[in-house]
């Protein structure tokens, strides 16, 4: 064999070896890359794959919890609204085929063009069909691959169903809950309202932890035509909010709101309020005021009317404090309902203080009961000397004055009472009849529960419970009831207040046939902001409970600066009607015993 023949035989073998080496090198490269993908950087690549495969997602909205009354009637709830979303790219694809196929009940499916479908959509949404088509055209002009354009947002369930019936494969819907208040302004001052950023006022805000939902998500893979690929969905479920039950009675609240609106306007007052409290439990059954807010239309109310004046306003209580002074004198100073004092319509005291009554009269020998019946400032001031200022201050604090309430309402104010060692000569006497200090409606109502409830002050409450989506029930933590006066003192003061309503000059206006009712009025002066009082401006109060011999419900009515009648007589009609409705609502039985008549003079 020649040398040339040997070289020729070796050449194919060499080429085979080189080719095999190249193949092995390429294979080795693939193996290295495979190891890198599946082992070294496996987690990163898996995450990327999932992100690409499940690149589309939408929010699953949880439903915000309802706010309900004591009977479970809805004061605030949630409804589903829908955002209609069009797929412009998908619309273009179907238009190339003359439209999508729809079964209209005939022998063969019919083709529905984009022009026809947009016209059907517009008829349901109330839009112009041309505007709908233009929105899609604009989306494609901005991005030829666009798969998103709004048809319309906040569609109702009825609109949603009608749009689905069109059968357009390029129309989808995003759900989201919206807040609704079925009875409008009923309880609006308490319930509060929502805004685009969440809860803004009232119980919607303070009880947001109970009511708020936790949103979930659903992720999925779409095909090129935008249709979700079956089996690719990954869901993180939403959690609904809890149900907040209030102590309020919805029907009673409605009645009281109509009543206080009528009375406020009739007396030409700036504002008014009615509060109803269950004596034994401290539960607030109504807290109505005027003006107020409709949470469905917040901007229709003035900003100052969107909160609750019941909890955020404070005032000088006037003569409604006289029973608290009387209770202190009986409980701590040995006085009786028939104890007497000689008093003229104007009295000057040893420390230089001067007190006068709202009416002129000669020197009377008033009983302690008579002082309350005639609402004598000078009389209760003279009686107040029989207990030390410090004792009276301590009892007022025990009655809850200056400490707010256990409700803890948003922006709730507390009254203001200075310690006794800071009282000047005039304040020492003025505090006996509700001047030189301030209080609030909840504080005053709480103080009177001590008189009505055998001497025990019960903390007020507005929230009954929160029931979470899983059924767990949580109730508010409330302070323990506080004994303020003895049971005997409570009974005596109740009898005195019943005689006030029987013998005062407004007795006929507050009478409820068949029932025994007790109470007191107050006409407080209003500060002018400069250390004095406004001329002719008053904050009037009427407060009482029934049945007088075994109290079940307490009603307090206030008017801010009534001008038609400037005294607390302005409140009488509303009080009588309010208490009458309360007794009917809770089916309180009429009296079977007669009241004890107490003397006004000694």
TrEMBL record:
Pfam families to which the protein is assigned, alphabetical: Transpeptidase
BP terms from Gene Ontology: cell division; cell wall organization
Family matches, as InterPro entries: Beta-lactam/transpept, Beta-lactam/transpept-like, PBP_dimer_sf, PCN-bd_Tpept
Keywords: Cell cycle, Cell division, Membrane
Subcellular location: Membrane
GO molecular function, one term: penicillin binding
The Penicillin-binding protein transpeptidase domain, residue ranges: 272-579
Major subcellular site: membrane
GO cellular component term of the entry, any: plasma membrane
Coiled-coil stretches noted in the UniProt entry, renumbered to this chain: none
Protein name from the UniProt record: Cell division protein FtsI (Penicillin-binding protein 3)
Organism: Microbacterium thalassium
């Amino acid at each position: 064999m020649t040398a040339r023949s040997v070289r020729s035989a070796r050449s194919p073998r060499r080429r085979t070896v080189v080719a095999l080496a190249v193949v092995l090198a390429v294979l080795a490269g693939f193996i290295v890359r495979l190891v890198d993908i599946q082992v070294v950087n496996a987690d990163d690549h898996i995450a990327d794959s999932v992100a690409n495969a499940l690149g589309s997602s939408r929010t699953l909205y949880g439903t915000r919890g309802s706010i309900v009354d004591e009977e479970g009637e809805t004061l605030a709830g949630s409804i589903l609204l829908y955002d209609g979303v069009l797929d412009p790219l998908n619309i273009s694809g179907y238009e190339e085929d003359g439209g999508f196929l729809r079964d209209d009940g005939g022998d063969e499916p019919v083709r529905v063009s984009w022009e026809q479908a947009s016209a059907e959509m517009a008829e349901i949404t109330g839009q112009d069909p041309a505007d709908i088509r233009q929105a899609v055209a604009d989306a494609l002009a901005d991005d030829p691959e666009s798969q998103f354009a709004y048809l319309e947002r906040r569609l109702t369930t009825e609109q949603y169903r009608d749009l689905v019936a069109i059968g357009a494969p390029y129309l989808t819907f995003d759900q989201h809950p919206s807040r609704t208040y079925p009875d409008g302004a009923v309880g609006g001052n308490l319930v509060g309202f929502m805004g685009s950023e969440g809860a803004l006022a009232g119980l919607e805000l303070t009880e947001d932890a109970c009511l708020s939902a936790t949103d979930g998500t659903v992720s999925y893979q779409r095909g090129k035509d935008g249709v979700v690929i079956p089996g690719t969905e990954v869901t993180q479920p939403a959690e609904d909010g809890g149900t907040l039950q209030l102590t309020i009675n919805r029907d009673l609240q409605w009645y009281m709101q109509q009543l206080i609106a009528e009375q406020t306007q009739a007396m030409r007052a700036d504002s008014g309020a009615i509060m109803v409290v269950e004596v034994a439990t401290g539960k607030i059954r109504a807290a109505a005021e005027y003006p107020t807010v409709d949470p469905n239309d917040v901007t229709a109310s003035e900003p100052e009317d969107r909160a609750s004046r019941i909890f955020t306003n404070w005032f000088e209580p006037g003569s409604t404090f006289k029973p608290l002074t009387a209770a202190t004198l009986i409980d701590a100073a040995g006085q009786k309902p028939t104890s007497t004092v000689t008093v003229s319509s104007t009295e000057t005291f040893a420390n230089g203080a001067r007190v006068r009554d709202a009416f002129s009269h000669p020197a009377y020998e008033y009983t302690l009961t008579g002082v309350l019946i005639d609402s004598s400032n000078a009389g209760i001031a003279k009686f107040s000397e029989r207990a030390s200022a410090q004792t009276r201050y301590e009892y007022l604090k025990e009655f809850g004055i200056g400490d707010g309430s256990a409700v803890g309402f948003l922006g709730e104010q507390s009254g203001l009472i200075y310690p006794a060692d800071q009282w000047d000569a005039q304040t020492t006497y003025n505090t006996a009849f509700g001047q030189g200090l301030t209080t609030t409606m909840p504080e005053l109502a709480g103080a009177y529960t001590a008189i009505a409830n055998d001497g025990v002050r019960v903390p007020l409450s507005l929230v009954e419970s929160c029931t979470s989506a899983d059924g767990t029930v949580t109730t508010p933590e409330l302070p323990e009831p506080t004994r303020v006066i003895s049971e005997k003192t409570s009974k005596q003061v109740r009898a005195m207040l019943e005689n006030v309503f029987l013998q005062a000059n407004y007795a006929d206006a507050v009478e409820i046939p068949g029932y025994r009712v007790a109470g007191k009025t107050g006409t407080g002066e209003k500060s002018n902001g400069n250390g004095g009082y406004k001329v002719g401006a008053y904050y009037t109060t009427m407060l009482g409970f029934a049945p007088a011999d075994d109290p079940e419900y307490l009603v307090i009515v206030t008017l801010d600066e009534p001008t038609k009648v400037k005294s607390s007589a302005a409140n009488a009609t509303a009080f009588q009607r309010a208490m009458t409705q309360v007794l009917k609502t809770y089916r309180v039985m009429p009296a079977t015993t007669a009241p004890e008549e107490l003397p006004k003079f000694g």
